[in-house]
Amino acid sequence: MCNLIVDEGNSLCKLALIDKDAIVAQMSIKDLTSESVSGFIANRHIDRIISSSTRSDEVKLPSCLEGIPHIKLDSNTPLPIHINYGTPQTLGRDRIAGAVGASIVYPSSNVLVIDIGTAITIDFLDENGVFQGGTISLGPEMRAKALHQFTGKLPLVDLPEKAQLQGKTTHEAIQFGILQGINLEIDGYIRSYKERYGNVKVVVTGGCSDIFINNEVTRKPNLVTIGLNAILESIKI
Predict the structure, then answer these.
(1) What is the number of helices (H) and of strands (E) in the chain?
(2) What is the pTM assigned to this prediction?
(3) pLDDT of amino acid 119
(4) Which of 36, 195, 201, 225 is the most exposed place for a label (fewest CB within 10 A)?
(5) Is 126 among the catalytic positions?
(6) Does 204 score more than 80 pLDDT?
């Protein structure tokens, strides 16, 4: 018997099967279809489902999942953490799930949750399990597209694996500016939070998390999945 986790992000929809807190299967697809989901869950008994979407108000599950108990994460869903946010109805569900995941990785700790994907979110969960909010900024691809679209001559660049301090061509200057800018931005946040709160754990996740170069952080690619499963496990259905 497994929990099915459905995480519909801005770019991809991620599916995971969790059995006794262990991820036993994962898949990323562009859109949910009955064929793809049926193949993913083949020969598995699905006990419960939790779904979350950053694209719309709710995930439209395919017909093959009808009848299975289903939690749709929204601002009214009971959570194992507390939310101190002025507009909880607009709080991204991926940010909620990431914070819950951080509470599992580092219980009773101050945790800075950094999610680098289409956007970059940096959120703070305090040692009392209270989500205190954070920041949202452009992700790497959005920065590259913005420089190209809002200027007359700057090219659209791909992103290198590593960045130098100085680009010797306009192409390199854009590439390195994006990567170095993100790294310095995040390092600055980490330093500021540690100055304010003292002992702060740092967890990094997201599809573009590899661009952040810092060996003193904990990397959890499945942080949102961990959080969604913890939410599901905390609710009796």
Answers:
(1) 5, 11
(2) 0.93
(3) 94
(4) 195
(5) no
(6) yes
